[in-house]
Design a protein that fits this description.
heterodimer, A: 203 residues, alpha/beta, two-stranded antiparallel sheet, 6 helices, 11 strands, 22% strand, B: 197 residues, Spore Coat Polysaccharide Biosynthesis Protein SpsA, Chain A, two-stranded antiparallel ribbon, 36% helix
């Protein structure tokens, strides 16, 4: 299965970025995978900082695209537009799936292997694995923090509000995406407690 | 896998009971079947026995529990689920198929839940329906769920004096804390009809 690790990044997550990239480097050793970050910070300064982290942890097979937001309407829009850039990369470069891995989640190096096994065993279109909520550590949540999304659902559904049948707010884009998958006759699963530990870093 | 279908029932669900028992009679996977009736009095037990006879269901038990009529439905349900849990533990079942009496499912549902459980060695597999009052809202309470014995050994339905409302969400959190894992599946088993009165 040809997979792209794709992650929107922003300088507000710098508190987690170095630890996360160290974690990425360990996962890449176990599961060699292409890796795309979409930086939506203001200006190009943060891209240079992230390149420095990648060099420090020996990550070579990566791309960073910078998405300059003319009007910054908040994190939800930045993330939604960055996800769309990743989606287009999956579609145009013939990946079979997108591993959506947020830059504040530390996971075991075999996490991607496990997600692939579950997806193939159940022929699921999408798997979200839970972490615990960053601000409420007793609340489990399964969104796009650690999720494997097959190409076939990305072919049908996107992340931009400009697309047909989309809501009129950016907030809750991942929830909307899942609802569309089901309405279109697809399926997805949320998995809790199968991959341990997952640390959801808070500032 | 030795499975118990276990369901709390109450006379308020009579609007769906006959259709549900017809659905039970068609389920493909062979399993034992326990209903825990928490209606007021014993009359409803007799009515349900009549439905079972009509649809040829013979391998079943109905236990009746009499609660204070003022008790809220959530508490009646949780206490009934605890009786089912005890039956699973005492009688050597490998898993409990929690199947609410207002959900009509495909006849191969239990086979599919077992397949999903085996797909990742999961201890709980929960399949969504749509919320009864809001058909656009996903619903993953204990309406169509397969729970392994090892999870039930560690996690009960009695919540040590906390409120009963939303206890299925609490069950999930306690199960995770006790080391279980959990699969919630959306759109994998279709159609599931969640009947409203």
């Amino acid at each position: 299965m040809k997979i792209l690790i794709g992650t929107p990044i922003h300088q507000v997550k710098d508190y987690a970025m170095e630890r996360w990239l160290e974690n990425v480097s360990k996962l890449l050793k176990e599961s060699p995978t292409d890796f795309l970050m979409v930086d939506n910070s203001p200006g190009l300064g943060y891209v240079e900082k992230v390149k420095g982290y990648c060099k420090k942890y020996g990550i070579k097979n990566y791309q960073i695209k910078h998405l300059d937001m003319t009007h910054d309407n908040g994190a939800d829009e930045r993330i939604g537009r960055s996800r769309e850039v990743i989606r287009q990369e999956v579609l145009t470069q013939n990946y079979d799936a997108w591993f959506s891995w947020e830059s504040d989640q530390l996971i075991p190096p075999d996490a991607l292997t496990k997600l692939v096994m579950i997806m193939e065993a159940g022929n699921y279109m999408m798997i979200s694995h839970n972490s615990w909520s960053r601000e409420i550590p007793t609340e489990p949540m399964a969104a796009f923090g650690c999720a494997l999304i097959s190409r076939k659902v990305l072919e049908k559904y996107g992340f931009l509000l400009e697309y047909p049948d989309m809501p009129n707010i950016w907030h809750g884009g991942d929830v909307w995406f899942k609802k569309q998958v089901i309405k279109g006759g697809g399926n997805y699963v949320e998995v809790y407690g199968a991959i341990n530990p997952i640390y959801h870093l808070n500032e | 896998m030795k499975i118990l279908i276990g369901t709390p029932i109450n006379q308020v669900k009579d609007y769906s009971m006959e259709r549900w028992l017809e659905n039970v009679s068609r389920l493909e996977y062979p399993a034992d079947f326990l209903m825990v009736d928490n209606s007021t009095g014993l009359d409803y037990v007799e009515k349900v026995k009549g439905y079972c006879q009509k649809y040829g269901i013979k391998n079943y038990q109905i236990k009746h529990v009499e609660f204070d009529p003022a008790m809220i439905p959530d508490e009646k349900i949780e206490r009934s689920e605890e009786l089912i849990r005890q039956e699973v533990l005492a009688r050597g079942y490998d898993a409990w198929f929690s199947w609410e009496c207002d959900q009509i499912v495909p006849t191969n549902t239990l086979n599919k839940l077992i397949e999903m459980m085996n797909s990742g060695n999961f201890t709980v597999v929960n399949c969504n329906s749509w919320a009864r009052k809001n058909p656009t809202e996903n619903n993953t309470d204990l309406g169509c769920v397969l729970i392994k014995r090892e999870c039930l050994e560690k996690t009960s339905f009695l919540n040590n004096g906390q409120r009963f409302f939303g206890n299925d969400a609490w069950f999930k959190i306690r199960a995770l804390k006790n080391g279980s894992n959990y699969l919630e599946a959306y759109g994998v088993i279709n159609p599931i009809y969640h009947l409203d009165g």
